[in-house]
Amino acid sequence: MESRLLSGATTIAGLPQLSPKLSPESVKVSFTSAKPIGAVGEGGNVIWGRQLRPALLLERSPVSKREVLKPVSAAASSPADGGSDSAGDAKIAPIGFVEKYPALVTGFFFFMWYFLNVIFNILNKKIYNYFPYPYFVSVIHLLVGVVYCLVSWAVGLPKRAPIDSNLLKLLIPVAVCHAIGHVTSNVSFAAVAVSFTHTIKALEPFFNAAASQFVLGQSIPITLWLSLAPVVIGVSMASMTELSFNWTGFISAMISNISFTYRSIYSKKAMTDMDSTNIYAYISIIALFVCIPPAIIFEGPQLMKHGFSDALTKVGTTKFISDLFWVGMFYHLYNQLATNTLERVAPLTHAVGNVLKRVFVIGFSILAFGNKISTQTGIGTVIAIAGVAMYSFIKAKMEEEKRQMKAA
């Protein structure tokens, strides 16, 4: 009788054949430490108190891979309900709008990038017309963006990526250059017409090429240098007859070009697997702390003496606060959308889009503020933009050829 009972135990949970000479007290099998498959989240499962990868489970579990990987809806169906045991009959999730119409989604990204950039530049200049304090306004731009990032992290959209001391050291130079470029751009916006600042900033590719050649030691093809000649000529023509020209606006825009060039250099050294949204958030936080001291030193006394009171007298408290809030939001969102758009398209498409964005900003700023420009300034601006387009096209084609050669 005892032998028959022990023989029957061999059919339980696939246990090996037990010897009838062993006493029942010496054989103790417990299932209490095992948890069912799927008891632990994030793909982990606990078997005999240890967490294993799903691949190991599939190898060791008596359940077949087909049954484990079968969707719940298919596994729950029974033959009586018309269900099938084959994984091929599992229901396929419907294709979403983003996957079905990628061109429309990319077009929407470009549209929002342009729209937010134009609105930012127009609103920014309107603020400077009654509140000419670019250092303080630059701090507000970054402050609103940082608050936006902190709220986004708090709700998990996106989830905050951890940062260590090594990555922080790499991001600090990038953020410092970003802060200097941002402040000097705003000093230029406050001093001269928006269209003229953007014309000067069209020289940024020239500084990028010069830094690559003489700082990084990279060889720049002659075709790239030739494509930059129209940019230099066009900016020179536009500057000589610009009605709003002053040296503060011109020099500040040039410093901005140099700062953003070095930002690009340091960004290449700080390559990381972290997503662009989190990277930009950390850069904004560091840049904010960099921008606060100059704002206090250069504009603090004037702001306390008459800057705030003059602005409140001209436009009122509600409009003043709302203008500062929205210009900060537009600044952060258009920069974030520019990064997101780059991730969706090829470098050539993004380069062409960036040139067209500058055309849009210059054109809409002239219409919005009614800025009068001379014929020579108009021609020079067109030549400069055409040169930037040529440079961007040639550089993007070269980068694409390099990637294809590496892939081959």
Verbal overview:
With about 400 residues, the protein is mostly helical. The protein is built from 16 helices and 2 strands. The chain has a two-stranded antiparallel sheet. A hairpin with a 2-residue loop joins strand 1 (about 45) and strand 2. It starts with a helix and ends with a helix. About 30% of the residues are buried.
Summarize the helix and strand pattern as letters.
HEEHHHHHHHHHHHHHHH
- Biggest β-sheet: count, sense, barrel? 2 strands, antiparallel
Classify the helix fraction into a percent range.
over 70%
Distance between the termini: 73 Å
Main β-sheet, spatial strand arrangement? 1-2
* Proportion of residues in extended strands: under 5%
The total of beta strands comes to: 2
Radius of gyration: 31 Å
Shape: globular
Structural class: mainly alpha
DSSP helical segment count: 16
Tell me, rounded to a whole number, the average pLDDT: 78
Low-pLDDT residue intervals, each spanning 5 or more residues: 1-20, 24-88
Question: What's the short version?
Answer:
By secondary structure, this protein is mostly helical. It is built from 16 helices and two strands. Helices cover 71% and strands 1% of the residues.
